[in-house]
Amino acid sequence: MKDEVTNTDEQPGSVEERLEQRSYELGERVKELSCLYDISQMLLETRSDELESVLERVVGRIPAGWQHPELAAARIRVGEVVCQTDGFAHTPWVQRQPFTVCEGVEGVIDGVVEVAYLDEPPERGGQVFIDEEAKLIEAIADRLSEAVRRAQAEERVRFQATLLEAVGEAVIATDLDGRVLYWNGRAEALFGWSEQEALGRNILEMNTPEDARERAEEILANVARGERWSGEFEVRRKDGTSFPAQVTSSPILDEAGRLVGVVGISRDLTERKAIEAQLRQAQKLEAVGRLAGGIAHDFNNMLTAIKGNTQLLREDVGGDEELIEHVGEIEQAARRAASLTRQLLAFSRQQVLQPEKLCLAEVVGAMKPMLERLIGEHIELDVRPQAGLGFVEADEGQLSQVVLNLVVNARDAMAGGGRVVVELDNVELDRPCEGVPVEVPEGRYVVLSVADEGHGIDDEVLNHIFDPFFTTKKDGSGLGLSTVYGIIKQSGGHVQVETELGEGTALHVYLPRAEVPPEATNPKPTKPPKRPPAAHAHTILVCEDEPVVRRLASRALSRQGYRVLVTKSGTEALDVLERADISIDVVVSDVVMPELGGLELAAIIDERWPQIRVLLISGYPSRDVLDADALEIATPFLPKPFGFDELCQKVAELLDVDG
After folding, report:
1. Which helix (DSSP H) or strand (DSSP E) does residue 309 occupy?
2. What burial class does residue 48 get, using C-beta atoms within 10 Å of its C-beta: 0-12 exposed, 13-18 middle, 19+ buried?
3. Are 465 and 433 in contact (CB under 8 A)?
4. Which CATH architecture is the domain 167-268 placed in?
5. What CATH architecture does domain 535-655 belong to?
6. Do the domains 535-655 and 2-154 match in fold?
C-alpha cells in the first residue's frame, strides 16, 4: 500500500497544487461558458438593422472569456462592418477564426473574429492560447454566422412583407382548409376585417356572398389540388356589402414541393367597372350623336325653308284671318321641330355654344317665377344658393335648359306633390373624394343639385336614364336627361345621380369654376342698337348648295332691297368674286358644300378681298366643321334653321360694322 501511495505522490505537485490547478481550470471553463452564454443571448434577437450595435456589445464581452483579459483585445468583421475594442492591434499573439454567412458559397469569407494580446502573456504548457480558447472563438464565430444568417433571412421576410403591403392589392394566404394565415393591410382596408379578426377565420365565411359560396368552394378545391385560378368574382365586405373583384388564387408549395396552402390576390374593380360603363355610355351617345348630327343637317335645311317661307307667306296673306291661322300653325310646328333638333344636337354635344361668365345663382333666380308656375302649386320649389357662389363659363340658354329639364324631371317624379330642392354650392375636390364620380378630376367646381322626394330609380332604369329616347313617361320624348348630359359634357362638366328607392333622387351637376375679374361682376350698360344701313346700296352673294335654302335667302334679302346674286358652290362663288364688274359687300355661305366648303371660301376671301364681310350658315353645327379659329379669322355664324328676319338682321349687322 505504501508503494502505491508513493507512486501516487510521484505525480508532479502536491495535492494542494493539483487542487489549485483544477480549481483554476474550472474557473476558466466557467468564464468561457459565461462568455459564450452572454454572447449567445446578445445574438439571439439580432436584427439586420441593429447588427452594428450588437457587434459592439459582443466584441466588448469577448476579452473577459480569455485567460488574460487585462491583456486581451478583440475585433469582429462582418462584411464591411468592423467593431473592435480600444487599442486592438495585430500583435504576434493573435488568434483568428474566419466564418462564412452565405451557405453554399465555398471559400467566401464573410467575417472573422480575432483576439489579440497586446503584451506578451505568460505561457501555460508552452501555448499562448489554450485549446479551450480555440474552441471558444470557434463557437463565437459559429454563433455570429448563424445570427447574421438569421438576421438576413428575417430582413428578407420583412422586405417581402413590406412589398406585400405596398402592392396596393389585397393579399391573403390560407391553409388548405381555407383558414387565414396572412392578411395584409390592403385586405383590411378592402374587406373591413382587421388582421386580428381575420387570422384563423375561414375565408369563404368572411368574404363570399351566399349565392356565390358553391362556386367559391369549387375554385378553392381546384387551387388546393395545385391548379391556378384567375377571374372576376363578387366578394363581400365585413358590413355585408359586395363589390366586383379581380381575384387570382395560386397554390403554395413548401421546399419539398408539397402543397401547404393557397395565396390569393384581390383587386377592387368598382372604379374600373364605373369607367367602363361611362365609356360604353359615351360611345353609345357618340354613335347616336353622329346619326343625330346627320339628320339635323338635312332637317335644319328643310326647317329653314319652312320657317322662312312661312314668314314670307305671312306678309302676303294680308288680312285673311283663316290663312293667318294656318300660317301660325305651320310656324308653331316648325318651332317645335326646331326645338327637337336642338335637343338632338345637345345630347350629341354638337350644339354651337356661346359660353360666357355666369353666376348660376342669378340664372336660377331669374328662372324661379317661371319654374314655380311650371311645376304647379302642389309642389314647393326650394332654391338654396350658397353665399359667394363662384362663376361658371357656359352658354346661358343651354344652362337654363339644364335647370328646366332637371326641375321638370323632379316634378314628374312626385305626382302626388312634394318639394323640389335646388342647391348651389362651391366645392373643391381633392382626390379621392367619397361619393364623387371617379371621372370628376380634382379642382374647383360650382355644383347644381336638384333633389326630389319621389319614389327613386331602380337599377334597371338607372342604367339607361341618360340614353336618348329612353323614357318611363307615357308622353315623354326621352331627351330630357340626355340633353342635360350632353350640354354639361360639352360645357366641360359632369353629372352624378344619387337615388334611393322610396326616398327620392338627386342629380348633381359639376361645372368648373371660372376665374372672373372684379369688373366682370359690374356689367356695363348696353348701347342701343344702331339703325341698319340702307339696303339698296349693297350687293349680297348667296352661296348655298341646298336649292330651297338658296331660294329663301334670295327672296328674303331681295325683299329688303338688296341686290342678290346666288351660286350653288364655293367654286362658282369665286368665279363671281373674280369678275371685275361686280362689287360684293357680303357673302352668305353654307359651311358644308362639295368641291369648296364655306370655311375655305371664307379664308380665301379674307386673304384676297378683306373688305368683303362673310356670314357662314349651316344645319350641321359640328365643332370640328365650324372651327373657324383654325383659319385665324373671326367669321360670324348663323345656325339653321333661321327665319328670313334673322338672316336679314345678321346681314344688316355685318354691313354696319364700320358705321
Report:
1. helix 270-316
2. middle
3. no
4. 2-Layer Sandwich (3.30)
5. 3-Layer(aba) Sandwich (3.40)
6. no
Cα separation, 623 vs 289, whole angstroms: 13
Q: Which fold has domain 2-154?
A: Beta-Lactamase (3.30.450)
pLDDT in tens, 304-320: 778 777 877 777 777 77
CB 622 within 8 A of CB 350: yes
Residue 514: what pLDDT?
86
Q: How do residues 423-461 score in pLDDT, each as one tens digit?
A: 999 988 876 555 566 567 788 899 999 999 888 888 777
CA 169/CA 271 separation, integer angstroms: 14
Asked if 542 and 550 count as a contact pair (C-beta separation under 8 A), the reply is: yes
Angle between the 396-412 and 480-490 helix axes, to the nearest 10 degrees? 150
- How is the chain split into domains, by residue range? 2-154, 167-268, 275-343, 356-520, 535-655
Q: What is the pLDDT of residues 90-107, one digit of tens each?
A: 888 898 888 887 654 444
- For residue 349, CA distances in Å to 246, 355, 407, 494, 630 come to 35, 14, 21, 13, 20
Q: Does domain 356-520 have CATH number 3.30.565.10?
A: yes
> Whole-model pTM above 0.70?
no
- CA 600/CA 602 separation, integer angstroms: 5
Q: ω into residue 641 within 30 of 0, thus cis? A: yes
